[in-house]
């Protein structure tokens, strides 16, 4: 008896899509175009709704990002899920049952193995999504932005080690500022400085340039416009 293919819909998480679906359209060559042909330090990707921008951006995040343990140490390649997503390999998808899925190499690994060895898992990445930042007033939008920034810092919780009095990476003012981000007590001025501060700290920790990916950058403005447009 034939079984229907399992198709994962409604997700912008690249790993979930690849591991949960039996049908997958390989768009990994987008990464080659982005890395080799963009020719710019800042890239704006604009397409109509439902063209997969968020999903492709998460694919790019998975490709570039350094995977670390709780202390910020590099994970060995054999333990890296992201590496297997592109280069192929066996992934445990049912920890309790021992169920595994064998992934085939994606096009980027087949056609450009040099890019995989040079870029895959080699860079710190800041990935910020703003689709849930909504509000009809500046105060509500600011509060939403602060929540997203607090979540962003918690994804890099291993950086807390630099708040310790014995750490010399940051001066005392910077340690206090970093502490405010982790405690979600940061000011409006800290909010404006949050991405710069985090990118500089990641650069100091890893010694490598940082990629900053911002998804739905216009969502707060669009939501505010629609709220005011429809108000009496």
Key terms for this structure?
single chain; 232 residues; mainly alpha; two-stranded antiparallel sheet; two-stranded parallel sheet; 4 strands
Mean pLDDT: 89
Structural class: mainly alpha
Largest sheet report: 2 strands, antiparallel
The total of helices stands at 10
Proportion of helical residues = 40-55%
How many β-strands, per DSSP?
4
The H-and-E topology, N to C, reads as HHHHEEHHEHHHEH
Question: Uncertain spans, ≥5 residues at pLDDT below 50?
Answer: none
Gross morphology: globular
Return Rg in Å.
20 Å
C-alpha termini separation = 59 Å
> What proportion strand?
5-15%
- Output the strand order for the largest sheet: 1-2
Question: What is this structure, in a nutshell?
Answer:
With about 230 residues, the chain is mostly helical. It is built from ten helices and four strands, in the order H-H-H-H-E-E-H-H-E-H-H-H-E-H.
Task: Outline the structure in words.
- This protein has helices at 14-20, 29-37, 53-64, 81-87, 107-111, 113-119, 138-155, 172-183, 188-206, 219-230; strands at residues 89-94, 99-103, 125-129, 211-215.
- It is mostly helical.
- A two-stranded antiparallel sheet has the order 1-2. Strands 3-4 form a two-stranded parallel ribbon.
Secondary-structure map with pairings?
Elements: H1 14-20, H2 29-37, H3 53-64, H4 81-87, E1 89-94, E2 99-103, H5 107-111, H6 113-119, E3 125-129, H7 138-155, H8 172-183, H9 188-206, E4 211-215, H10 219-230
Parallel strand pairs: 3-4
Antiparallel strand pairs: 1-2
Helix pairs in contact: 7-9
């Amino acid at each position: 008896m034939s079984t229907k293919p399992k198709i994962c819909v409604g997700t912008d998480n690249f790993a979930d899509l690849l591991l949960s679906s039996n049908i997958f359209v390989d768009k990994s060559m987008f990464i080659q175009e982005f890395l080799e042909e963009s020719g710019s330090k800042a890239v704006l990707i604009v397409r109509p709704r439902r063209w997969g921008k968020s999903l492709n951006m998460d694919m790019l995040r998975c490709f570039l990002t350094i995977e670390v343990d709780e202390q910020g140490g590099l994970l060995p390649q054999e333990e890296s899920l992201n590496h297997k997503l592109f280069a192929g390999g066996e992934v445990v998808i049912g920890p309790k049952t021992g169920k595994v899925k064998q992934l085939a190499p994606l096009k980027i690994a087949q056609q450009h193995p040099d890019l995989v060895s040079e870029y895959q898992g080699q860079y710190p990445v800041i990935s910020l999504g703003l689709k849930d930042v909504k509000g009809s007033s500046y105060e509500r939008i600011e509060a939403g932005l602060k929540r997203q920034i607090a979540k962003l810092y918690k994804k890099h919780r291993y950086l807390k080690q630099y708040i310790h009095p014995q750490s010399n990476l940051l001066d005392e003012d910077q340690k206090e500022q970093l502490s405010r981000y982790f405690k979600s007590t940061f000011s409006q001025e800290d909010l404006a400085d949050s991405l710069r501060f985090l990118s500089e700290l990641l650069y100091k920790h890893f010694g490598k340039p940082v990629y900053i990916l911002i998804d739905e950058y216009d969502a707060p403005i669009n939501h505010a416009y629609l709220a005011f447009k429809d108000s009496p």
